[in-house]
Design a protein that fits this description.
single chain; 141 residues; mainly alpha; 3-stranded mixed sheet; 5 helices
């Protein structure tokens, strides 16, 4: 179980012998992941879930996303870097009392868009999901 990631009910299956991880919606192939905050998902949970999957993988592991091409451990590492960077940028925007439009003006996904595509929906969902988890990250003083 990978709690509070894509949803609050995400599961993965690790098959050690063929060296495969079936990860479902927790990972995304060639696009930003979808965060379903209405069912308990959030960007911090996505980062933790991705970190957990990286811990199970090696350079030969095949990771099966919910849709799209098979991924590698390096792809998971790239997703983790993106998730943590954007989570931190959203956190900084919240601490500065910025609204969503002001966050967008900072281009928080600038270095990741070539790899992951259009960030519009992802940022909307990441912003909304983080607003309910400020206390989890110590962002309420």
């Amino acid at each position: 179980h990978l709690p509070a990631a894509h949803t609050d009910g995400d599961l993965y299956v690790h098959l050690p012998q063929p060296n495969v991880i079936v990860a479902g919606g927790v990972v995304a192939a060639g696009r930003y992941p979808t965060i379903d905050y209405s069912t308990g998902g959030w960007i911090g949970g996505m980062a933790e879930a991705t970190r957990s999957l990286i811990g199970l993988a090696n350079e030969h592991t095949r990771i099966i996303p919910g849709c799209g091409a098979i991924l590698s451990r390096a792809d998971l590492q790239a997703q983790l870097k993106m998730l943590e960077t954007i989570r931190d940028r959203i956190g900084n925007a919240i601490r500065k009392a910025l609204d969503f439009e002001e966050l967008l003006a900072t281009a928080p996904t600038r270095e990741f868009n070539d790899r992951f595509g259009d960030p519009t929906q992802f940022l909307q969902l990441a912003w909304a999901s983080t607003r309910g988890h400020e206390r989890d990250l110590g962002w309420i003083f």
